[in-house]
Amino acid sequence: MSMLRCRIKEDSKVARLAAWKMKSDNIAIVFGRVIHLYGVSRQQFLSDTAWVRHEVCHVKQYREYGFWGFLWLYVADWIRVGYYNNRFERAARLAENNARELDGVEIV
Predict the structure, then answer these.
(1) Is the per-residue pLDDT at 32 higher than 90?
(2) Is the dihedral of CA 73, 50, 35, 18 positive or negative?
(3) What are phi and psi of 99, to 5 degrees?
(4) Which of 5, 21, 61, 94 gets the highest tally of CB atoms within 10 A of its CB?
(5) How far is the C-alpha of 40 from the C-alpha of 4, rounded, in Å?
(6) Given the DSSP bridges, would you call strands 105-107 and 4-9 parallel, antiparallel or unpaired?
(7) SS3 of 40, please?
(8) What is the rounded CA–CA span in Å between residue 12 and residue 84?
(9) Average pLDDT in the 29-35 region?
(10) Cβ(32)–Cβ(61) under 8 Å?
(11) CB–CB of 73/61 below 8 Å?
């Protein structure tokens, strides 16, 4: 498998909106290969390996389903079963403990 390159965008407006929706002081949200952060610095985020693995799992999901395909499936699942029980969130929570999740991943 080829190298997966992810980018981080700090103080993201879209992440700020997500934080408001989720009633959270800090958040990370992924669109494509970009991890958008709000209320947390790049350094703080990268120091939390489980959180990085979680978000990288979402980047991989975008790669698997395509940008619009993933968004469609994610939102449909969220509507059907809620955020926590969404299959993509369940998979990302499992990835938090996967020591190999970041193999072949570069975050720039």
Answers:
(1) yes
(2) positive
(3) -60, -20
(4) 61
(5) 23
(6) parallel
(7) coil
(8) 23
(9) 97
(10) no
(11) no
Q: What are phi and psi of 89, to 5 degrees?
A: -70, -40
Cα separation, 77 vs 4, whole angstroms:
25
The encoded tokens of residue 31 equal: 């669109």
Q: Which tokens go with 64?
A: 């698997």
Long-range pairs for 10-15: beta carbons < 8 A, 24 or more residues apart: 10/37, 10/41, 10/42, 11/37, 11/38, 12/36, 12/37, 12/38
Q: Is residue 45 a contact partner of residue 8, using CB atoms and an 8 Å limit?
A: yes
Residues 15 and 28: beta-carbon distance below 8 Å: yes
The span from the CA of 47 to the CA of 78, in Å, is: 28
Q: Which residues pair with 34 in a beta bridge?
A: 7, 31
Q: Say if residues 39 and 12 touch (Cβ distance below 8 Å).
A: no
